[in-house]
Amino acid sequence: FAPWADPASKPFISFKNVTKKFGDFTAVNDLSLNIYHREFFALLGASGCGKSTLLRMLAGFEQPTSGEVILDGTNLAGTPPHRRPVNMMFQSYALFPHMTVEKNIAFGLRQDGMPKDEIIERVMQMLKMVKLEQFASRKPNQLSGGQRQRVALARSLAKRPKVLLLDEPLGALDKKLREETQFELMDLQQNLGLTFVVVTHDQEEAMTMADRIAVMSHGKVIQVATPAEIYEAPNSRFVADFIGDVNIFDGQVASAGAGRVEIAVDSGLTIKVATSDKPAKGSNAGFAIRPEKLKVLRHPPPHSSVNAASGELWDIGYLGDMTVFHVKLKSGKVVKASSLNAQRAVDDPFTYDQEVWISFAEDAGVLLRD
Ligand code: ATP
């Protein structure tokens, strides 16, 4: 499933040069983005980056200041929210407290004037889908947070929208329930064959659930890619830093070409990066590498002046599944390395303050030009 990789496939949802201003403030800035049918798409970014505003323009609660929002070939300008084949589920769930679960789910269908027997059937279907058949006659305050979340989900899906919009859907759940619900949502999305667009500031949530993620900042999309691409090949310092842990080395380009760039880092360290990029000699460049791609060694590697540096083991953190090492390099920079304990040589542990080397491969990290 990768319609975005196929130039022949048509996007289901398109934002075309969309700008949204509130007074002088630009919440969404000339943003273009395609989302495909049956995709589980995540908008990820810090608070205030404009992700909810983007979702609300798709739902019809906000109008773009300029630009177009296209759904299934139709420009949505002028279509009111209730006429759009999208439904939105909010973090607060907004269930009616005085209504039973059943009535909550039926509410929108009644408003639409669906015949009574059809409503009953649809509500049963929805209750079954979210495994709440026995809870049909309870009120929301007689349910757990996870159950309330499932009622809200059932209510949003009852009208069979083509697109479900979820604004921080799992924010109110505790960690364990959140993880369970993530998988339930993914199952449901797959089984129903719907397009889900979820807004979240939680990178783990986005990484777990989404087919693709748009990383946003200040009303712009910085990178759109699969979770693996975002993590392994961040396109910028912002994305490298925003997603997961990272070590960034800064320096100047010493040479570029033949599939490789050499960066001279301040402390005498030279970094060779495998890349087809050819930045100008002398220009500023960075190298981003994830902790698990840094090796910690007891002895200097064979070519110890390139992609390697010595230092002191500053801190060892045992996390159960993995161990995290902080190494203070000769330059004073502290870097983070991690290794899975399942792969550790248990009989030969590292000790604090020990002299060690870090080393990494040319293709273990990415070049940063910004
Ligand atoms: P959060 O995760 O906190 O909800 P977000 O990325 O979803 O953040 P938005 O809700 O899209 O951010 O808001 C983007 C910016 O636009 C914020 O700075 C917000 O204050 C501003 N904003 C949103 N709605 C309005 C409004 N109706 N009037 C004025 N400013 C607004």
If you had to describe this structure to a student in words, what would you say it looks like?
There is one protein chain. The chain contains eight helices and 20 strands. With 370 residues, it is an alpha+beta fold. It has two domains: 3-240, P-loop containing nucleotide triphosphate hydrolases (Rossmann fold); 245-368, Nucleic acid-binding proteins (OB fold (Dihydrolipoamide Acetyltransferase, E2P)). The strands form four sheets. Strands 6-7-8-3-9-10 form a six-stranded mixed sheet, with helices on both faces. A five-stranded antiparallel sheet has the order 13-12-11-14-20. Strands 15-19-16-17-18 form a five-stranded antiparallel sheet, with no helix packed on it. Strand 1 (13-22) and strand 2 form a beta hairpin. Adenosine-5'-triphosphate (ATP) is lined by residues 22, 25, 27, 45, 47-53, 201. It catalyses: ATP + H2O + polyamine-[polyamine-binding protein]Side 1 = ADP + phosphate + polyamineSide 2 + [polyamine-binding protein]Side 1.
